[in-house]
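*** Backbone structure tokens ***
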Amino acid sequence: MGKRKNKKRYAKRVKHCLKDNPDITAELLSAKRLKSFFFVLQVPKMWSPDFVKHLLKAKLAKRAEHYFSENKRVVEGVDAWASGNIVEFGRLISASGLSSIQNYECGCEPMIQLYEILLKAPGVFGARFSGAGFRGCCLAFVDSHQAEAAAAFVQREYCKVQPELAGQVPGRRIVLICEPGYSACVI
């Protein structure tokens, strides 16, 4: 009983701070603290993602949408993978990529173009950004029987939209085909 009372009291205090102190809200929601703040907001079960987004300014509400929907996609992705539903797993990867672009406002024109090309490539189940900036990359989940065709398509199409940038890649090897390795283990 005591824990429930404390959660309600905490939720009320945070709600008050957010509503009445926009400067504190802005500080709490700075990019470096965004994820931990949303984690705190997830703790009280009575706070839905829609409630949190309602408290925030438009730009931060979009970022909250990405954060909450990404958490949901991860859970759904685990289920899709465990059940062998590769098509659904790929759809979730692509939804993550789109949310990164639209809601979290990640990416630059060359990366977004690469993401869009990957989605059109043959055999691609899903695509998204990977990395934390500083020359990140896109990854695609591809049917192994169509990997070469997908790579050729991406290489050709990306050179059309970004010829100067593509020309800077050593050997013009824009696409790397990788196979999964062994999972982490203790040696």
Notes: The longest strand covers residues 124-130.
